[in-house]
């Protein structure tokens, strides 16, 4: 395979690339960092554009050339959309001088990158990060400008990658677009599996995520109130100034069987997954949560309101439910039966190894980037 010269447009990924102790850390940022590092190890030329978080203008991290753009808060309200945000992005795209550009997650930047690529005869690869990205209503994009730019970028991408068959169907139905379905990669911790008998006693239920309204942490707290014999760990923080986040945390702190850990360093997360009876997801809608991959990699079943492509139920990876009683019943099935837990744990590790191991997934991304790069004649 020829060397791929790819630029990741990943504004919020610097913290994850730098070690995960600062900046915005989440599933998207972890994916971007993992992918960039893997491609660099394979000998490809990888550049990443990120926000200015006080780092040098240009530096090399794990073989990835890092170029900084602007501070997230820079510029005057109303004007900063154009300067420094758009002007810095245009400058960064040109400095990267890549032969293929990649962006993940629906936002106005998708359209800006696609427009630059179209103008400069460079291929653009876009991948979805959420089911919302695939539905024309685009309810998560608040303004007409954001929706218009994202739609332009999506429709002008040379290749579109979706996370699930459901997302591929939504893109076909809503936008008339075909996409390549590629599962998300996640590394194994390398630690041996933890048996049912070695998990924490009393059983601990883990919840991981940003504390925002659509994640519905209050549902977990309802479960905790009805299950005083179980323990619940919450790993995550609210958005700054969020009244919802403040109120739900006050409630959590009043429950003696709930521990709020706040922001947890990446290297500490495996210990939480490995101690847990299960991971509980209470979100209204997701893409393909990185937390699911991390849990399955440790043999930790999932009890969830969201079941991507019906995998949890069809492959016996835990259980799915829509209400607090249904979620609690799923948790009880795992806590009350060692055999049920062992089967779900075994299935989880088996599914992860065959579907999400980076050495299985990343060659598929590599192939898409190579095909996109080879499919255009570049003018430099």
UniProtKB/TrEMBL annotation:
GO molecular function, one term: transferase activity
Family matches, as InterPro entries: Glyco_trans_4-like_N
Keyword annotations: Transferase
Lineage: Bacteria, environmental samples
Protein name: Group 1 glycosyl transferase
Organism: uncultured bacterium lac193
Entry-linked Gene3D superfamilies: Glycogen Phosphorylase B
Pfam hit, one: Glyco_trans_4_4
Domain Glycosyltransferase subfamily 4-like N-terminal, first and last residues per copy: 26-180
